[in-house]
C-alpha cells in the first residue's frame, strides 16, 4: 500500500472520528443538548389528562423516530392487504351517531392490511411477533381507520417510550442482528427494566404470536375510545375483530420450518383463498362501558397494558366484515395505504390514554416522510369516497386542481367558503370533557400495577398453552448472552407466576426465584384458544397416494372433504396424473420435493402400489412430522400399513378404517379439532 493511500485512509478515519459518539455513562439530552430531567412520561394536564402540544421533548423524540426509515414503514413494514365490505347487524344509534353503524342494509367498503410489527419487508411471515390488523372504512362521512393488532394490549403505557421499545426489539445496532426476532440481549434488557411490558410479553410468548393464518387471528383496537350518540352522551368502547373460523396458531417448530419452506405462507394463503372465492370473515365486536363506571375496576381503563376481561364486560357482536377482493397492485395499494387512528367520523372520539394520544401525533408525521409529503390522502387507496374541500394547497404529490383565487379562511371573495358545518350538518365536534391539572411529567398511580393481568393471562391458559409459553421464554432467553439480563427477567416474571419463572429459569441456567408469586386466582376463559371455534372449513389436507389407489373410495373421501369446506391437495411420486382403480384419475399438486407437512393442517394417507424406497421414506418422514405437530392423520387401504409400521396408528387424532362413511365423518371431526395435544409422541 502506498504512503498516499495510507494518508488518505488516515484522513478519512480522522474525519469519521468526530462523528463517533459513545453514549454510555452520559446524561440524556435533547438533540439541542438540553439535559432532560424525565424521559418516561409525556407532559400532561394532570396525571390522567391529555398530552400537551407544548411538550417539545416528546415531539422531538417521536419526530426523529418517525423519520428513521425510508421508504418502508418503521414498524409493520411487511404487510398484506385485501378489499371487502362491512355490514352492521342492527343500528347502534343508542351508542353512536356514526352513520356507517346505523343502517343494516348498507355495505361500507373496507381495506384491511395485516402485518408483522417487528421485521423488515423481507421477513418471513411466520416469525414470533405481534400482527397488525388495520381497517380503513370508506364511509360517506369520510374515512375511519381502526388501527389495531392481534394482541389487545401493548408493551408501554406512554407514547414517549414507543421509540425505546421499538429500538429494543429491532436488530441490535452494532451488527443488524437478528431481524424479525426478539431473541436478543437488548430486547430482554428493555423488558426487565420496563416492567409495564409484562402483560404484553405473556401474549408475545404465547401461541397468539404465531397465528395459523391471518384469517384465524383476532384483532383488537387496543385503546379505549369513545362512542358519542346524537344526544351528546358518551360511552367508553373497545373494539374487537372475531374471526369466523376461530383463533388458531402454529406450533413453534412448525413456524420455524415454514419460514424456510414458504416464507410467504400467510400472504400466499389468504391471496389464494380469496382467489378461489372462499372469503375471510370477521365479526366486529364492541365492549361498551358507561362513563359513570370508569373507576369501578381494579385496573385503569385508559391503560394500554390492560384489557377488559370479556367475562366482566361482554363483547357485543355488531356487524360482519367480508374480504372478497385482492389488490390489483401491491405497491399502489398495500404499500401506499396510510392508516391513522386520528381518522375518525362523528360519533367516534378519543380518550386520554397517553399511548393513544402519542399515536394521534405520530401517524401523520410518519406518512409525511414515508409517502413524500402532505398529500398522501390523494393517493387512490387513501382517497375518501366522499368529496373533500378545504384551503390546503400545493405540496409534494398534489393531484387536485383547485380553481379560484381563495385559499384561506375567513374570506368574503368566495362567500367564506368552504365553510364549517354545524354538528347538525354532520360537522365533527370533539367530545367536551373537563380537563384540568398542573403541567406534569408523571404516571397516574392507577397505571402502576404491571403484573395482575399478566397473571390473569397465565391462569387462563390450558396446560399445552402454558408449556408453549415456557418453551418460548426458554428459547428467547436461551439466545440472550448476558447472564444478568437473564436473571433480571426470571426475577421479574416471578411476580407473574412462580411456576412459569422457575420452569424457564431452570431451562436457561439461571437461578430459580426464591420469592415472588401472585395471589391472583382469577381466570378469563376467553383468553385461551382452547375455547375458540373449531371448524373444518378451509383446512388444508395433504393426500398421499400413488398409482393403483382405490379410486372409488378415495373419490368419495375427496368429495366429502370438499363438501365440508376442506381443501385437499394430492402428493405423489411425480407431477401430472395419478391413476387409481375404476378408471379414476387425479391431478397431482405436489411431490415431496415441492411441499412439506408443515404447510398442511392434516394428512390423509392412501398409498397405492408404489415400491419406491425414496417415496416410502419421504412419505414416512412427512407423516411422522405431522404426527409430532399434533395434527390429525387419516388412513385407508394400504395407507394404514404406513401408520401401523411406524407405531403411530393408535395415536390420539389418528383415524383408520376402510368403512368410508365412518372414516370421512370421523376424519372431518378430527380436522375440525385442529390439534391433539394429549397425543403421546413416539
Provide a concise account of the structure shown.
This protein has 682 residues and is an alpha+beta fold.
Could you give the topology of this structure?
Elements: H1 3-17, E1 43-45, H2 56-66, E2 79-88, E3 108-116, E4 131-139, E5 142-149, H3 162-169, H4 185-193, H5 198-204, E6 219-220, E7 225-228, E8 234-243, H6 252-261, H7 265-275, E9 281-290, E10 316-326, H8 330-335, E11 348-349, H9 354-370, E12 439-441, H10 452-460, H11 463-478, H12 483-493, H13 498-508, E13 540-545, H14 551-563, E14 567-571, E15 576-579, E16 585-588, E17 602-607, H15 613-628, E18 633-635, H16 639-645, E19 654-656, H17 660-673
Parallel strand pairs: 13-14, 13-17, 17-18, 18-19
Antiparallel strand pairs: 1-12, 2-3, 2-10, 3-4, 4-5, 6-8, 7-8, 7-11, 8-9, 9-10, 15-16
Mean pLDDT: 92
CATH architecture of the largest domain: Beta Barrel
Overall shape: globular
Oligomer status: single chain
CATH topology of the largest domain: Catalase HpII,  Chain A, domain 1
